Amino acid sequence: MAFTLPKESYSGKVLSLTFGKDDKAVTIGGEDTLPFLSFEGSIPNRPAIAYEIQDSPIDDWPETLKAVYKDVSDDPVKWARYCQDELKAQAIALRLVSTHPDRENRSADDAAKTVSEVLSAVETPLIILGSNHVEKDSEVLVKVSEAASGHNCVIGKAQEGNYKTIVAAALAHNHKLIAMSELDINLAKQLNILITQMGFDKSRLITDPMCSALGYGLEYTYSVMERIRLAALMQNDATMQPPILGDVGMYVWKTKETMAEESDVPEWGAIEERGIAWESITATSMIMAGANLLIMRHPKAVEVVKKIIDELI
Amino acid sequence: MALSGIEIFKLLPKTNCKKCGFPTCLAFAMALAQGKTEIGKCPDISEEAKSKLSEASAPPIRTFSLGKGEKAVKVGGETVMFRHDKKFFNPTVLGVNIKDDLNDEELVKRAKEVVDSEIERVGQKLRVEAISIEYASNNPERFESAVKAVAESAPDAILILNCGDPSVLERAVKLVADRRPLLYSATDANAEALANIAKANNVPLAVSAEGPEALSALTEKIKALGVEDLVLDPRPKNAGEMIQHNTIIRRAALKKGFKPLGYPIINLVTREDSLLEANIAAISIAKYASIVVLSSIEKWKNLALFTLRQNIYTDPQVPMQVEQKIYKIGEPTPESPLLITTNFSLTYFIVAGEVENSKVPSWLAVMDCEGLSVLTAWAAGKFVASKIANFIKESGVENQIKHRELIIPGQVAILSGALEDKLEGWKVIVGPREANGIPTFLRNRAA
Prior knowledge:
By secondary structure, chain A is an alpha/beta fold. Chain A has helices at 63-66, 76-85, 108-121, 134-147, 163-172, 185-197, 218-233, 248-252, 256-259, 271-289, 299-312; strands at 17-19, 26-28, 48-54, 91-95, 126-129, 154-158, 176-180, 205-208, 245-247, 293-296. Chain A has a single domain (46-312), classed as TIM Barrel (Alpha-Beta Barrel). Chain A is built from eleven helices and ten strands. In chain A, the strands form two sheets. In chain A, strands 8-7-6-5-4-3-10-9 form an eight-stranded parallel β-sheet. In chain A, strands 1-2 form a two-stranded antiparallel ribbon. In chain A, helix 2 (76-85) packs parallel to helix 3 (108-121) and helix 3 crosses helix 4. Chain B is α/β, with parallel strands linked by helices. Chain B folds into three domains: 5-57, 3-methyladenine DNA Glycosylase II, Chain A, domain 3; 63-312, Dihydropteroate synthase-like (TIM Barrel, Alpha-Beta Barrel), CATH 3.20.20.20; 325-446, Rossmann fold (3-Layer(aba) Sandwich). In chain B, strands 10-9-8-7-6-3-12-11 form an eight-stranded parallel β-sheet. In chain B, helix 10 (274-286) packs parallel to helix 11 (299-312) and helix 14 (385-395) crosses helix 16. The longest helix of chain B is centred in the middle third of the chain and has 17 residues, at 239-255. Chains A and B meet through helix 7, helix 10 and helix 11 of A and helix 8, helix 9, helix 10, helix 11 and helix 12 of B.
């Protein structure tokens, strides 16, 4: 029997998207094949990784991770500079956790001020995230979009319950936008349609189908991402063609596996390596399923995922 | 390619003798087409028809066992490219490579790591199943004694004899032939000799060549020599080649019915950096390897890889469930709050995680609703007042707590009246609609 290379032909293509400015700008997406199958298509851009920083001193991260940022995490500007200068971050994701009504409940104006300060301190492309409180985010993200006008940021996350105001703000100030739905390909598709119906071009969207950590529903995210990619490429479904986000760090670093001391669970092994493995393997799984952009926390996890990408591309 | 029921029927004797256990030859043919019975059950079929049928009805990727006895593990038999299309069937076997030039003490220590690797997660026992012993000493006696030492120290492990020298391998395999070790590996240079050893000892054989095309030529040659339990190593140079080779192999087998590549895959993922190696192994598990051989098996690495394997090989159509019981979150006291939810694992993980984040020690009652989430279980009549009341009464939680307050998910607020009627002496409190509201809810109650 003679071997013939079983190539798939794809009718669709993932949209490419650029955020940030000048020579620091980052471009993601653009591939016309399933993840890393370069024998049957082209993959013009590597998956990008953004370091997550927060606008308020961290309280709920495990000690092993907190320690990495202990000298800078009291101030988002210092923290952003550290990511840019020491960690050589390709992108930074600023999460405005302090605006959550259950945290410090800081105002949208305060958040806008923080964003302006970070933007004037670093040139690294910025992703600006709310606190994931549906009502509050619709206020906060409108103000910060305005404050970041002209910086070509990624703003997020727009969800079914608040997308209208956030889309309008991203549109007015020329930002890219993350559309998030909860682990369901149909919801992801519907939200992308609703957003584009407001006149927001799909080439400026990023789909976040909701991440989950290794051992905590990872298989759901994995399969939803694979199905979104297949719809984009095989069925040429234009609403499923924006690049995909994996917001990895926030889901990983609250799991027991990243927090439990080795003395409590000796069979789980060293806590530091365990946490780094948890974040990096979650991230690696996401790029295998089709993610184009990752948000991560631990520099060692980021480093190993970069090495993986070096091997894959 | 698979034959239809009618095509199979044409090859049968059409006597309706019922000896196969089916009422008619047609019924038997239909069952054969669906893979529900075996051709051997027909006593009167001609040899010619039999060989035609067994060739055609063979699964696209061969399935067989590695190892022997209770801890033998099935490999191969996969039917889809994407887990959401059906499911992945036979979870990747994890193994560790041990070089024979270590001293005996060190060898035994490494073998014991495999024996001790078993841990439990979500009710499943997970472990490193295989040990590969590599012929690195260039000393045949050393290899034999290493194989013996490892085999004795790890009596349940699947053995992989990693040695390309036929004369050395032939002597070593005799020591452990009853364990059905996997021979690694036949190449262009030694294919015939290794095939003969595999055949004589009735053991599976790994075949390695650079890339799928070269592999397919080699497996055809070896199959012609009478060895059919083969494992493929496409010898990728990096992770990118690995995912492409593995994809091409599985696709050729499943989509083109290309038999020379219809075998399980083995990947050796050795990297100097153990964390990098763990991530390469993760890719291998997600993308089609049946056997992954590592160079080290630290506990943190095992935990992460076991978990990923469990996630990827979960049946997407059967919701993962957790055990019905009253879970302790933190160190709850008889005064701590009691919450209830359903036993869909994702529901449980999210609710338990948020309760943990609240830092308020609590009791979490998880009720068996056949793995449905709260709203679905309520709609299906499984998470309703009478059943919840029974569960709470029978759970024994009344002996663990002093208060009589039950917090129910906000999504099923509608249940609160009926539940108070059924649960005498209890007060029902409606909790938040979404799990992410739990920390605030619990902290406000505690304050």
